[in-house]
Model the fold of this input.
Amino acid sequence: MIHCVCRQINTAKVDQAASCGAKTANCVMKFCGTRFNCGQCRTSIDDRLQAVIPTLGEDKLLAAE
Ligand code: FES
Done:
């Protein structure tokens, strides 16, 4: 899914940014080396971050078991 049409940021890119510590849409933009144009994607990116951040680290926990 494309979250940011202006900058072509998709779910995989948001997830990658989150796994590298991004906690806000602004952080995702910095991770991608860009910044907001229209800003309409902010809510979509933040929603995705909220959905994925609680699950970060579960893979590591499972791997450690
Ligand atoms: S949709 Fe992301 S800046 Fe326009």
